[in-house]
Specification:
six-stranded mixed sheet, globular, alpha/beta, 165 residues, 6 helices, 6 strands, 22% strand, Nucleotidyltransferase, domain 5
């Protein structure tokens, strides 16, 4: 006989491409997953600025994304802090320009983990920062997909256009 845990661990994520986004002050790392929600991979690093949201909207349309998973900055106790306050309007604006729901996912340590993984793989030097942002976006998206696979429910808090965080 199968237990509920076995069923939850074998649950497949919802079908459809998702974008993972690591929002930074200077750069925005973007990742995507396949339509089955199995493989997350880096897409690009978008420079922060006036056209950043437009580029994310273009990527969402190009990839046919069903949602965007946005890394949400929290402190080590899981509370939103100064960084989250600085981007409080971003989730709703992102939902509006992409036309899809945005899920906020705790991004604690994703950039640190990504930097360590790249360093251990021998990736060092000046071009590494843009790659770190993409790797952090992959980590955010991978966490969301793993959570959905293990719980049978989408990860994070959903934000739609017009909603403030």
């Amino acid at each position: 006989m199968r237990s509920r845990v076995d069923d939850a661990e074998s649950a497949a994520p919802r079908a459809g491409v998702r974008l993972g986004v690591d929002w930074g002050k200077t750069r925005i790392g973007v990742a995507a997953c396949d339509a089955e929600g199995v493989l997350a991979y880096p897409v690009e690093t978008v420079p922060q600025g006036e056209t950043a949201l437009d580029r994310l909207a273009d990527l969402a349309a190009e990839y046919g994304a069903i949602e965007v998973v946005l890394g949400w900055p929290t402190d080590l106790r899981g509370r939103s802090g100064v960084a989250a306050d600085a981007m409080s309007d971003i989730p709703a604006r992102l939902a509006q320009v992409t036309g899809v729901a945005v899920r906020l996912l705790d991004e604690r340590m994703t950039t640190v983990v990504a930097a360590r993984q790249l360093a251990s793989a021998g990736r060092r030097g000046s071009g590494r920062r843009a790659i770190i942002d993409q790797a952090a976006a992959v980590a955010i998206l991978r966490q969301a997909l793993d959570t959905e696979r293990h719980t049978g429910r989408p990860a994070g808090h959903v934000v739609t256009a017009g909603e403030e965080t």
